[in-house]
């Protein structure tokens, strides 16, 4: 008991020490989800897209797009993300195996999303459906980073000014037409690089977390 | 999954030559392992290590510079750099200076090499790019800049003042003022625990202490600007200038990585580096005692202008520098004329018109001038003024300011008039409203006094403005005759269609672009209550007096800068290649970025013309 507490403490200490080094020392998994709605309790995840950032650069080869099995597609949301029931049937992956895969991927990386609470909410919900080990996720939210920056500058940002496209425009990033999970993950990753490049000095992960991030524990289905 | 499966990436690659010409398999091979990176304005990229490979600009703009800092190329969206590091080992040590925040695709070196070997067209494109840049590099090195004056990519530490004058927040104003006076500086840094906490400038002492009657015993902590803007010593002059103009400050503290002050950069430091040579030239002009000597000094003039263009001086500043030099030369010639022909029998003014008046001359501008006499001269006096005019105009011509082909010069007795004579001429022009008369006379409406008392000239301008205000028909005619020239909007389409044919398209940036904005500014300027003569000042005044929307005014000012920049750059290139200036530009020598801007610029002029048409010429069909 004491031993495991000590180990947890030393892990925590190790983590803190590392978090106090340059952000480039970490690998980031930038994630976007397409869902049937915004409420994790009643809506479902349709697909996930992600891309990794390593040594300060986006690795395009790491991009992935996965459609989840069993999601019911609301005809109204089809228009937004262009995924149909048929796609889910043909491409859909088994939810349990996708989650195990995700767990391996997220472990040791920093999760990044634009408006992360939504992604985290759905991840929590998904985790609770499967029996597997808990996972602590270190995460950053590009929307929160943007809001902190605006507050520091005393800038007033119009309604809708924190949407992904609007944030990107402020950094001179190109306009992307598609809104599938993969395109939005890439768009979010580029936004993250731009936000970091606009800091006066290269930030540490700890500084970024303070400005817009946190630590969340994903708990599995109690057995 | 691979990069090629991301729709936005594929779409961009598929629409960007030479990548668009590759097969899907080749594109896939090339895109393997591609990385996306982001760089900020002002960052310098040395193409070594991970960076020694091909980069494609997804969004943004960069400069390619030689190891010595000479500008090789400006590139933007869809263009590549790093070619030399793959084809050879970057023998010229080319580096990249980021002009706008940029997003790059960084390709894997071996993938790029393999595709080059497999696809001849693709390889040809890059070897051609490489040759092209080498050609540009050799040209910019041949420019042989006498002293590389201030380049925007110079690090701050080469320019800043290192002698630090500091105080603590607890020091009194009195003590700080004494320190500043002793050190002969106009600002003092307030430092606590070796960290910069504030700054106090001369202006602060005036406005925050003297003006409000504050006691000299108050501490600096109470009056200093807290947490002032600052920069690190490795930043570039370009960034310092941006920051200083954004914050409207003249003193910029420079700090090290611990935020401890290491130097100070003032507007004067920047100016000193920029304007060293023009000031020297003006000083030299004042010391010469014969036309022959002036001619000798003026031989440096084109080289000086070419240097200033190469150091990216803003066009409107360059225009002012050239005007200051022409004015000095003119005044020195007038003094030499007095030595030769005796003192003038009466006070008079030497007037300049057109581009010298507007302060937007460039290389190869001609002279337009006249005299204003304080009374009607006797026969002898008239002969005296004829003599000195001959001497001055001929001197200007020998010094490189060409004689006016339209004979608008002081040598022409028609343009040696009394104040009443000038007033009559202006009233005549305004009332006649004959388009042909106006077209020739429009140059006189840009008027400036270079020698003699200013007031009599102001009185003529007031009379002229009053007459203009009474005659809306004059404005309509002026507008209509100005609008007969349209910007060459269709030019780019033709260029694209016929670039491979025999027709070599050349564009006259002065007459097809700048002159149109000058005309618009004159129309608005004459409608303003306050007379301004330079084009940008007129547009600004018109916007202030609500004759022109501030958007259109700002766009036109930017367009004017843009065109002037291109014209000066074209002149510089032409001068270096042929020894004489030309305002013609061959679009094939423009980068896609410049072409894009040019196209937008012409659209802005068109918009300005419709606005003028609406305001001044409606109902006068």
TrEMBL record, chain A:
Keywords in alphabetical order: Exonuclease, Hydrolase, Nuclease
BP terms from Gene Ontology: DNA metabolic process
UniProt entry tagged with the keyword Zinc: no
Keyword Glycosyltransferase annotated: no
GO molecular function: 3'-5' exonuclease activity; nucleic acid binding
InterPro entries assigned to the protein according to its UniProt record, in alphabetical order: Ribonucl_H, RNaseH-like_sf, RNaseH_sf
CC annotations in GO: cytosol
Organism domain of life: Bacteria
Residues annotated as domain Exonuclease: 27-201
Protein's recorded name: 3'-5' exonuclease
From TrEMBL, chain B:
Keyword Electron transport attached: no
PROSITE patterns recorded: CBS, CNMP_BINDING_3
UniProt-listed CDD domains: CAP_ED, CBS_pair_CAP-ED_NT_Pol-beta-like_DUF294_assoc, NT_GlnE_GlnD_like
The keyword ATP-binding belongs to this UniProt entry's keyword annotation: no
Keyword annotations from UniProtKB, A to Z: CBS domain
GO molecular function: [protein-PII] uridylyltransferase activity
Gene3D superfamilies, sorted: CBS-domain, Jelly Rolls
Residue stretches making up the Cyclic nucleotide-binding domain: 18-116
Domain (CBS) ranges: 160-218, 224-281
Name assigned to this protein: Cyclic nucleotide-binding/CBS domain-containing protein
Species, as recorded: Maribrevibacterium harenarium
